[in-house]
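Bench notes, bay 3.
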Amino acid sequence: MRHLSLACAVTASVFASVSAQAATYNIDPTHTFVTFEVTHFGTSTNRGRFDKKEGVVQFDRAAKTGKVNLTIQADSINTGTEAFNAHLKKPDFFDAAKFPTMTFNSDKFSFSGDKVSEVTGQLTMLGKTMPVVLKATNFNCYDHPMLKREVCGGDFETTILRSQWGMNWGIDFGIPDKVKLLIQVEGVKQ
């Protein structure tokens, strides 16, 4: 009986450690977008996105844990207007020549049931790292019919003060400090 109890304990321990291992998901760049919005003198909303990004997410629904490492190429900014793109790449804003990448790294996921509700991490931009909390407005996992793999992802958002990273251009004459970040992400299980 003692051997049976020991065998059951070992088996349970093995299954617990297997189920607690996080799966790795490579970010799908064709279904992942990093977009920003800022009001233009209280009249309309300027939007832009970064077209080049890559990253990895480790995610374990059972253990309710996760990690994310996302890298964004600053010079891939796309507002739909070349002159605006060129200005945003200059030292007034993203200083893409000096700081070619921005990163978001996290090892803290919050859950509501089995769905991610929040991701807390560090955003590095212009050589400065500050904490950021991304709130999930949508989250889901599904079996991709063509890839034959699980895909997880969602829509996340936050509002930052760009001045915290030293991006101050235009604040003194009315361009807002507040910038809304919208991140749509899907990761393919490896």
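Next record in the batch:
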Amino acid sequence: MRTEKLYRPNVAAVILSSKYPQKCEFFLAHRNDIKNIWQFPQGGIDANETPKEALYRELEEEIGCADIDIISEYPSWITYDFPKVNTARKYPFDGQKQKYFLVRLKDDEAIDLYSHATPEFEEYKFVTYDELMNMASYLKRQVYKKVIDYFIQEGYISQ
């Protein structure tokens, strides 16, 4: 019997609109497979792939656009457990360990949620920090706050 939790390596993108720094807006997308869940793009890191390589691949797959500038990277991995209702997932993992990147889109208009056969998101919005904290999935809010507050404190985001 396994006693240590198993976490899936994953990347997540905190995306600022191309209007930044004149206007501080965050990209938030509505998942198409789970009702009322708004989140940042994220996804697993494949074997022999660096977190940065996974970031670009995931952005291309999920929002159809990897035309970004990487501003910063959160200094450590953040773990979270899957909710109990997800125990029958297709993965053998207890949760995910995520590496967060702060990025700025070069062109907001390049986003295409339907660029791949099976889109993960059905719509997206650029929102303020307060709107983000109200709309984001309850499971992710605490982590989003921790990560964004770090980027603000370090001077990577000005509001």
